[in-house]
Amino acid sequence: MKDIICNGCSLFCDDVAAETVSDEVKSLGFCRLGHVHLSTSLKVQEATAVVRENGRERNVSINDALEAACDILLSDEHPLLFGWSSSSNEAIREGLVLAAALGGYFDSSTSLGPLQAMSHSIHDLKLDIDLEYVRNNGEFIIYWGNDPTESLHRHPSRFAVLPRGEKIPEGIESRTIGVVDVRETETMKMANHRIIIPVGSDSELLNTLTSELSGTTSITGPVLGIPVVELLGLVRGLQKSDCTVIFYGSGIINSGHTNENLSAIAGLVKALRNNGKEAYAMPMFPERNTMGAVITANEVASSPGSIDYSNDEPVTTPGFTALQKLATREFKVSLIAGDDVLAMLPGPAAKALAQTQLVYIGPPGGLTDKRAAVSIHTPDILIMGSRTMTRLDMIQVEFKPWPDEHVAPLGMTEVLIKLREIIQKRTTGK
Ligand code: SF4
Fold first, then answer.
1. Which end of the chain has less Cβ packing within 10 Å, N or C?
2. Lowest mean pLDDT among 30-34, 72-76, 215-219
């Protein structure tokens, strides 16, 4: 078996191994999600392409697909380039260069919540620890508004709940686990504190805990239907812990109250620190390279997303994303990289996107691929290797080719480079 790094989710487990026996995948250490991702990725080891016209689909060469994609992209002065949260950092970088060459609008699936979360002032609180630090020091772990057993399966077992660490000699026995959610979750089964709250009441509970910890008010009766004894038990646990880490997820980010919720988490972190304790808050983005999409766009264009290249200088539009522009039917043509965005977007935005002429680059399957006029199917970087993604805690991870050292000549990055070269040739003659 060969040691590899899994990219089935944003944890990039590097303690796993896999081999193929008669085209079947045998894996060691992977979670169910990772094993399925490995098996699916293995089916695409070389780039292929299809075009669709009048409801009919036909296989074409990559060169023909590239020419057809250029015809579509150049038919609009201001195409949308969207997706990217499952693409490598190198592909995202090329996507930004392509957006500039096309005079297009670059945005990523991070505008569905993560972008707002990453732009919040909570990040001024020096929250930059990594998951290894959590493994070694995290004493009170709170999963708030997310269930890692659904999307980041090995988060509890590798980093936050089960493993021993430098200051956590007994593993789970040395930690306290809290789960706050709007319903009972699998992760609650391993928690010491299980709190179920009404939808949309996260900030109220956070502010109640902060007030109690700061001594400004006292909990004297149930809050949000939670008995006093449970609330005070949670507060006592927080007071005892030397290092508390809150992992917040879509319940906080996609609730429609992102800013209010993150400000309330920041308040709790500050209250704990004012009591002389270590405290941190980290997001739980399951999409594989959400962090890479945010960081790479920031490096290249000084903005984590929503970048308009229709003028000579890129213009960023914070707070105004592709979603709003889709709602006003601003785009006629879209290039989608990697993500099945038609399955991810809210209904009205998905409908508007589906009515644009679509070019898709990425793994086969999914609504977006099937709807595209041109699809170029590329191998995953798990197969390609030699590309990077950025882990949930902003650590950059480089992949190695699998199952053997043979590297396919065309992955998403190379396809984007070729597209740009053809476009530049057609528009400038060079
Ligand atoms: S937790 Fe994520 S990275 Fe780790 S094996 Fe599962 S899918 Fe792969």
1. C
2. 215-219
- pLDDT of 173 higher than 80: yes
Asked if 350 and 342 touch (Cβ cutoff 8 Å), the reply is: yes
| Interval between CA 35 and ligand 1 midpoint (Å) | 8
Grade residue 318 by pLDDT with cuts at 50, 70 and 90. low
Which tokens sit at 301? 């264009």
The whole-number average pLDDT for the span 55-68 is 96
Per-residue confidence (pLDDT) for residue 312, from 0 to 100:
79
The residues pairing with 55 across neighbouring beta strands, listed in sequence order, are none
Which residue, among 327, 256, 254, has the nearest Cα to 287 in the 3D structure? 254
At 188, the amino acid letter reads M
Distance 13 CA to ligand 1 centre (A): 6
CB-ligand 1 contact for 13 (6 Å cutoff): yes
Our answer on whether the CB atom of 251 is closer than 6 Å to any ligand 1 atom is no
Distances from the Cα of 193 to the Cα of 71, 144, 258, angstroms = 57, 11, 24
Percent over 90 (pLDDT), the chain: 82
Strand order of the β-sheet with 105-106 is: 56-60, 48-53, 374-377, 357-362, 333-337, 80-83, 105-106, 307-308, 315-316
Other beta carbons within 10 angstroms of residue 383's beta carbon come to 23
Radius of gyration for the chain, computed over Cα atoms and rounded to the nearest angstrom: 23
Closest of 264, 240, 231, 238 to residue 145, by C-alpha = 264
Distance CA 75, CA 368 (A): 20
Least confidently predicted of 38-47, 57-66, 160-169, 404-413? 404-413
Q: What is the pLDDT of residue 403?
A: 86
CATH number of 114-283: 3.40.228.10
Residue 67 alpha carbon to ligand 1 centre in Å: 37
Four-way CATH pick for 45-108+305-428: 3.90.640.10, 3.90.1150.10, 3.40.50.740, 3.40.190.10:
3.40.50.740
Cα–Cα nearest to 106, from 394, 260, 321, 368: 321
Please report, for the chain, the start and end positions of each structural domain, with discontinuous segments joined by +.
1-43, 45-108+305-428, 114-283
110-138 pLDDT per residue, tens: 888 888 888 899 999 999 899 999 999 99
Q: What percentage of the chain carries pLDDT values higher than 70?
A: 100
| Average pLDDT of the residues of the chain | 94
Intra-chain end-to-end CA distance of the chain, in Å: 47
